[in-house]
Amino acid sequence: MSLVAVTGASGKTGWRVVDEALKRGLAVRALVRPGSVLPAALAEAEQQGRLDVRRLDLSATEALHAALSGCDSLVIATGARPSVDLAGPLKVDAFGVRDQIRACQAVGLKRVVLVSSLCAGRWQHPLNLFGLILVSKRLGERWLEESGLDWTVVRPGGLSEDDSRSEREGVVYSGPNQQESSSLPRRLVARVCLEALETPAASGRIIEITSSPTQEPQALNQWLEAAIPAPG
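The line above is the sequence of NADH-flavin reductase; the predicted C-alpha cells follow.
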C-alpha cells in the first residue's frame, strides 16, 4: 500500500486531507508541529494505530527527511497563519514550501500536490496587505513547477468550515487564472487533493477550484478529460 504524507496535518485543511485519506483506506503519515493539538478524529486514529503521526519542525532538515522517507506522495497543506509577522507568508508559503520540495528530492519522493490559493501571484489584491501572501504562494508554486517532481497545484477559493456544503455542492474546476472569487468547503479541497494524487492527467497542472450548489458533482478526472490538454 502506498504511503501518503500530509504536512500541515493539524491545520483546518490538512486534517481534512488526512481524514479523507483514512476514509479511503490509505496509509497516511501526518506531519505536524511539536506543539500541535490534533483534531479529535486524528487523535483517535493515532490511538487506534491507523495513523502515523510525526511531530517535527519542518525547517529541521534531517527530521523532515526522516519523516518523508518511505512515503510515495506528499500533500503540502501548510500555510501562513494570520500574524503581526508580515514575513510569515514568505517564510511558510515560499521558503517553507521550498524546504519541503528539497526534502522530497533528497529522499526520492516524486509525487506532490500543493494547496495554494486562488489569485496566487497577483500583486494588486487585498490579501497582499497581509505580508504579500499571494506573491509568496506563487513563489512556492514556481519552485514546485521547476523542481522536476511530479506535481499538481490546487488553488482553492475562499475556504469554508461548513463541511455539510461538501454534500450539497459540486466543484467548479478551471485552469490557472480563470477564477477570482467564490468559496468552497475545506472538505472538498481535501477530496480534490486526493483525487489529484490518483489521477495521472492532473500531473503538471494548476487547477483552480470553487464550488456551487448549481454545479453537478463531477470527478476531477472527468473534468480533465474535457479540459484543454496540458502543454507539451
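Note on the example: The chain is about 35% helix and 20% strand. The beta strands are 3-7, 27-32, 52-55, 73-76, 111-115, 150-156, 158-160, 170-174, 183-185, 205-212.
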